[in-house]
Amino acid sequence: MNLELVTIGTELLLGFTVDTNAAFAGQALAAAGARIVRRTTVADDPAAVRDAISEALARTGLVLTTGGLGPTRDDLSKNVVADLFELPLEFHPELWTALTERFARMGRKISGRNRCQAEVPHGATVLPNRWGTAPGLWITGGRGEVIMLPGVPIEMRGLLTHEVVPRLAARTAGAVVRSLVVRTTGVPESSLADRVSALEDTLAPLSLAYLPSLEGVDLRLTAWNMEPAAADSALQSAADRLRGVLGNNAYGAGEDDLAAVLIDACRARSTTIAVAESCTGGMLGARITAIPGSSDVFVGGAIVYANRLKRDLGVSERILEAHGAVSEESVKAMAQACRERFGADRAVAVSGIAGPGGGSEEKPVGTVWFGFAAADGVGAERYVFPGTRQEIRARAAQFALFALWCRAKSAGA
Amino acid sequence: MNLELVTIGTELLLGFTVDTNAAFAGQALAAAGARIVRRTTVADDPAAVRDAISEALARTGLVLTTGGLGPTRDDLSKNVVADLFELPLEFHPELWTALTERFARMGRKISGRNRCQAEVPHGATVLPNRWGTAPGLWITGGRGEVIMLPGVPIEMRGLLTHEVVPRLAARTAGAVVRSLVVRTTGVPESSLADRVSALEDTLAPLSLAYLPSLEGVDLRLTAWNMEPAAADSALQSAADRLRGVLGNNAYGAGEDDLAAVLIDACRARSTTIAVAESCTGGMLGARITAIPGSSDVFVGGAIVYANRLKRDLGVSERILEAHGAVSEESVKAMAQACRERFGADRAVAVSGIAGPGGGSEEKPVGTVWFGFAAADGVGAERYVFPGTRQEIRARAAQFALFALWCRAKSAGA
User: Fold this and answer.
1) B284 in contact with A at a CB cutoff of 8 Å?
2) B107 touches chain A (CB under 8 A)
3) N-to-C CA span, chain A
4) Are residues B285 and B371 in the same domain?
5) Residues B284 and B392 in one domain
6) Interface ipTM above 0.85
7) pTM (2 d.p.)
8) Which region, left, alpha or beta, applies to residue A15 given φ > 0 means left and ψ of -120 to 50 means alpha?
9) For B48-98, what is each residue's pLDDT tens digit?
10) A276 and A332 belong to one structural domain
């Protein structure tokens, strides 16, 4: 099933707003077997909206619109479509009551200009909006079908997911586009490709895309135009094969956060953790404490930015002078001192040169040392990360989470 | 001057990629007096690309395209446009040499399939691409003009800014759409509106938009269809008037980061700072250390997540038992202990309930106490922030930066 998307808003064309709705709609509809074949964005201008919808209807007969359903003068999309389908607008008292009640719940008095939001083109299906004031509309007529959704992202996403996708999925012949993401980290894209290449032939008919980010490389498997059940089973089986060759480097699926994966692994083993951060300056702690319930596992730590604070934590002047703060010896001492001071089972220390200044031939910008301390001893690893200051720091925080997770898992095995 | 934007890519329609290029182009072109009146997105399909470009040319005679200039089979946009303008493709040896050298610099051998990237429609202007392999193209013919840019964001933005905008700006009659953002924080949107309302009539012909985010409320002033010099002077003068009524709450312009503003203010006064974070768990330190050169000012701090670490820092058992960790007494003790322990001029402590659990009637989720310690004494403030766990934490980190900045400034005044 093919359809077109028309997104309406002067702010979209001027670039004041990034059209994230369009990406959300593309994925959700493709997964249900409905493919957006063209997307058009026009300003809040009745003639432009009318042209875009009319042309899209002529091509596919099915158009989804976002935006232009609010109460202001600019929001004229509904009138344009009613006019295009030659349908009169009818006032729905029950919509007006619901709207009035919604305003009352928020402690606001409804204004007369909201009255237009309770008007519906004759015969249209009203899609109830639990997330805001303007209901969605499904209008059918001689020229085809227009599904109108508000532009506010939370309202648009709620209505699309709960009202539009189920209705369209019930109609599609069965061919869907679905994808599944296997998240990897701790291995560069080129080495990842080497490990996956032997498998690539066996993945057909799925396609495989490499999506590098600061958190690692996501592997996106996509099933194109397959029956829903066959697509899901092919995706699951391919993901299992990928995980088989990737081992620990495959830490999750979809939008899994490595910090949550680490917290779960530590909680299952009753392991507590602490951190000592220099170049990441708190990013590692922030990643961990972003996860609800992280207090079961995370005790806290130290942001030892100045060398004075590294000494205060317990790193000897001798080590700092002989090897510098970015060294194997310093991060080992930091991790050990952190573990003892804060009484955690495991500690990680991070010290590096995030740039833009401070690099040298021996220790270029991007050099980061990681120290690890646990009951069974102390260790360290060194990496040189590419990118800007903020990218180097984000990669270092992600690597620290990864290394902690690998160590916590193997100890419990 | 009106033009249309055609963005090309199957990934865009499927929603695997969010079209951030489109927003960037909209702002940059409007500021130069060229208005995008329609945006069309189509798949990597020659017939769809041809239709979209041909229709856009018929409407405006000037079309900007992004995407479809790479070396793979999918990337056929250049051939489509050459065909549409009935221009033969010509091989440019100097482009091939530059491409070969670029690959060599990255330690890679060029492949024969890249040869097509050195082909140019007869008579087209080549826009040199310093950021990647595919040059931009400016093609003129009987049907109008097509400007083709690659889809990779850094390449598209570089070419648009350095090659396209100057050429179009030289042609425009002078009417531009430009905007200027005044960043505010520490004041809710409704109070902000009260303070700005008296001014609103004097802002004409500029429009004013309120853009709330986790960092505060940005006020965007926009000049519509004005002469460039008049637009800039009206924007500057209106921004000055806004700053006049907003005082400290207006901390910057454009994309200024409050952490950088704080670092600059402290550096100018030779003030050092330290942090003690509970609910923000490192976010505050991460915000500060994201700024290059923050080590001039920031000494570090403690992530005192567990109460055991608050005691270790120097908060007495008595205070924690009598008032709890989220209290005026605790944050004052945390700030004071932090300042003394880490030897900083100023310290801030943050302790709150980020949720989703842990709230009570007396201290609901979102309650955050901030403690401040300096040579002239100790103080505290309490806020209840709305939102999810991550939103509450981000708002708390921003407020801590704001309160530190206000205190650092007034001490130096």
Assistant:
1) yes
2) no
3) 49
4) yes
5) yes
6) yes
7) 0.90
8) left
9) 999 999 999 999 999 999 998 877 766 789 999 999 999 999 999 999 999
10) yes
